[in-house]
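FAQ
Q: What does a multi-component entry look like?
A: The components come first, one per line:
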Amino acid sequence: MGVTDKFPDGFVDKIAEKVTDKFAGRVDLGELRERVPVDKVRDRIHYPSLNDFQRPNVVTTTADFVFSWARSRSIFPFTYGLACCAIEMLSSGFARFDIARYGYEVFRPTPRQCDLMIVAGTVNEKMGPVLRRLYDQMSEPKWVIAMGACATSGGPFYDGYNVVNGVDKIVPVDVYIPGCPPRPEALFQGLLELRKKIEDMKFVPTPAGEATID
Amino acid sequence: MALPRIGSADMTIDQVAARLKGEIAELDDVRIQVPDTVVCRVDPATLKDVAHRVRDIEGCGYEMLNFIAAVDRGDKLEAVYHLYSFVSNSYLELHVGLPRGKAEVDTVSDVWPAADWHEREAWDMMGIKFLGHPDLRRILLRDDFVGHPLRKDYADLVENHPYA
Amino acid sequence: MTSDYLISWLYVAMFVAAGGAMVVGILLMSRLVYPRHPSDEKYSTYECGIEPVGDSWHPFAIRYYIFALLFLVFDVEAVFLFPWAVTFRTLGVAGFVEVVIFIVVLAAGLVYAWGKGALKWA
Amino acid sequence: MPSVFDTPAPDAALQLALDRVKRSEEEGRGSDMEGLAFNQVVVNMGPQHPSTHGVLRLVVTLDGELIKDVIPVIGYLHRCKEKLAERRTYYQYIPIVDRTEYLASMNCEWGYVLTVEKLAGIEPTRRVEFIRVIMAELMRIASHQVAVGTFTADLSPLGTAMVFYTFRDRELILDLLEEASGARMMFNYFRFGGVRYDLPDGWVEKCHALMGKMPKLIDEYEALVKNNAVFLSRCLGKGVITQEDVAEYGITGPNARASGVAYDLRRTRPYSVYPELDFRVCLAEHGDVYDRYQVRIDEMRESVKIVLQCLDMLPDGPVQVGSLRAPYVITPPPGECYVGQENPRGEYGTYIVSDGSRYPYRLKYRDPCFCNLQIFPKLLRGTKIADAVAISGSMDMVLGGIDR
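Then the predicted structure of the entire assembly, as tokens:
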């Protein structure tokens, strides 16, 4: 079933003619916005996946073991430094405290290539929508660490008129790290807490009420 | 052109104050805040003219604007222009009293380009409108923030906060 | 006699098949495993956290084309140097001289482009 | 739920940039390319960008590689510090002042404490003055190390090596500060007329040892990038600040001294015991990106000399004026006052209006980075994107101070 015959008739050559206009002169392609809604196409195609199993079996449990081991040992954090905690996060990346010992030293500036968003600093209401959009643009599986008192609950600026009291009002948070700013060792303890959390992720959780062996 | 060497006109702070009082009549209640600041009040209407003349007095011209502090004095708002002079190495504070309801004053961003952002911040925080300012927008708060938070009568409403 | 000729082609076929199978296998396996939550926000363009405004479908400056062209020439040159580097020892001096001529010709091209100011932006 | 495809409403700064582009195209100044109608792209070097060293957003109008216009947008870290001043007593407010310029919090505390001491008429003891100078100069070295390190990290491969050197040595200084005050970054160490703790014994010898090593370490930094062609070609002659700009835009600190303006508050408006110390005000003459880097390196050496002198002249005596109880409740007489203080980034001070109660009536920060940032549009117009990264790195912005 070719792609073109799904469209109303004449739609494709309308696009072709528009495109030629575009390069010939300056025709605004504004109305081409409602081209094929991409998410409809994506959802209709269903790929087989490990989550389709109802009960955990030998395939999913080995996959759990391999993937949770791989995911927890090498997370790419997202350089999302806001305030003073960012300087502590920065100095935890260098020689003295060396985040590389845990495998987390690859700090990625774009949300596309990272798994862990460390919110290091105060989030105010002008930064809220930006933070939410960056969180949405990260690819699954993704986690959030609220580093420092400001990200956890507004910190010393809790009664500011412009301060969001805690990042969990905007994004779901996995690990909270107290401190203002938390020492790099505290950040590493937060990362190890997150590692425990990732290690018991399962593709197919055992149904409730069933006994588990381990 | 190079700036004058700092403190080259070695005048004491009293000579500077006397010079200012003599040169510019509109400055009233000129007093000295030891050790290095001349404080005076200026009428909002004559501010632009005073600003031009204060900067261009040869001998102790105030070329640099440090900051503009917007203070809510209860009955009236006040803009404090804090200036620095390289030649006489002294500070000058111009206090401009503004009525609370219609707090408007001429901009000085053409006299000192540094005033551009300070005025935008005074507008954003205290609601003092600067007439003739090239681009008077909010500088620190969200564009859809309601009210001026540093005023004493600012009511912090819940609707004003998307993530309350 | 022809059999070992065919067998050597068999090795090539097996090599290509293994490569292809590995690529397809990895792609399929990843589809088997990764969690999929497609959403519009996720597929919005990333511009430092701000919603981009305006259409990105418009003609770019012509100078980018010149830089792309120059890059392409020297990229292809690098591709030609790889096999030479592998058999460098067996080719002896003649091989070396040929490559030097090859590089000098391309370097002349670069010098010409440099002289014409193609590398300077404005 | 708004679909991704309908064009979102741009916020004020983006709208302003789009209007300027539309206006420039109507007047036919669309693009400098001879006769080719390439329209200009408005792009965000947004709040989350590796090279802006914090949450500064630049709405950049691009014409190919050249920057046509830049509109800085700040406020993404505005934490309402000036409003919080009205709800904290003078003593409670010291930790908040730490967090304005989080790279040099000792100097910020000093800026605040100087003003309150002048307002309340408190005179600290001589030993406290020397301890304060030592702490402030150590913090100046640490702050310049971060500034120089992250600046060179953006520019050249060897520069990224330099970041590791500077942060390694910064840790040594933070150890000293932690030993004296108990914290690595947010010290809360200054009090009105004193400091919280006296120096632990053995601290002076450790500080002496480190300061003895420091000049050799600074030579190491310079050796990395001194004659590195990539670094020099990206720094020399870029982003020149003239002396009129310094006066017009109120630029202070290393950015002003790089243009030859000898405006250093430790000399022009001496406070504390600086008149008794001899040190050189580091100047340069061109005011380009390289000079700003060079002035910071020289200032690190000067600070080492200052600390060594203070360590030798450190007198004995109490570390707190009056009983330990007195500084907690301070009610300065009604009045207003501003004392500037030389912060690693420029003139930092708080203008405090007090009405005689325990809470400041109004507190206004004079933040160096807020004033230094205003010259960005003038510096970046007409340069290339790569230079914009170099220039913004050389201005050394700390967003905690800009947004307050």
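Q: Is there any commentary attached?
A: Sometimes. For this entry: Chain B has one domain: 13-151.
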